[in-house]
Design a protein that fits this description.
2 domains; mainly alpha; Arc Repressor Mutant, subunit A
Length: 98
């Protein structure tokens, strides 16, 4: 059966963090009660604090900065590929003139 990673939806994560922040409960106690790793709860708390409503967007859903970074990386890869093709073409045509 292997170690399958458990996934938690946004509502679960927000509620877990709320128990820590608003009710003032200890991270360790909340994590133990919910059956989750204490480090995960610390990470969720940080993400919610840093990203607010953009936190926990889910698999495949990127926040605006991540989406822009992905788009720019694709554009860079395309331009780099075009440049390499042009370099090869120049080399081929330069050899033919000799």
């Amino acid at each position: 059966m292997g170690n399958q990673r458990r996934q938690f939806d946004r509502a679960f994560k927000v509620e877990a963090v709320r128990l820590v922040i608003e009710e003032g409960r200890a991270v360790a106690a909340v994590a133990r009660e919910l059956g989750i790793n204490e480090n995960s709860l610390h990470r969720w708390k940080s993400q919610l604090s840093d990203q607010g409503n953009q936190a926990f967007v889910g698999t495949g859903n990127l926040n605006p900065e991540q989406a822009e970074l992905r788009r720019l990386r694709r554009a860079l890869a395309d331009v780099t590929e075009e440049r390499d093709i042009l370099k090869k073409a120049i080399a081929v045509f330069s050899d033919r003139k000799k």
